[in-house]
Amino acid sequence: MVEHATVVDGITRARTHRGGWVGYEPTRRAIVRCTCGLDSGIVLETQAAQIADDHRRTAAEARV
Fold it and tell me: What is the DSSP string of 27-38?
């Protein structure tokens, strides 16, 4: 059973180009969410990765 399912979602921005096609560009921002209720809000991608790693490590230590 998975106690924590921590997800890092990258945020992209839609941009309409000539001819009507839409492209998506990275914003270098992300959100970290977990089934335990953690919600980091919008942070830099590097911070999101660190938050997710720290959260997983803390959750694993709590189980021991």
Answer: EEEEEEE-TTS-
Provide long-range contacts, Cβ within 8 A and 24+ apart, for 26-31.
Answer: none
pLDDT digits (tens, 9 = 90+) for 9-25: 899 999 998 999 999 99
**Are 27 and 45 within 8 A, CB to CB?**
no
* Residue 15 phi, psi dihedral angles, 5° rounding: -135, 125
* pTM of this structure: 0.74
User: Which tokens sit at 31?
Assistant: 């959100």
Helix (H) or strand (E) holding 54: helix 45-63
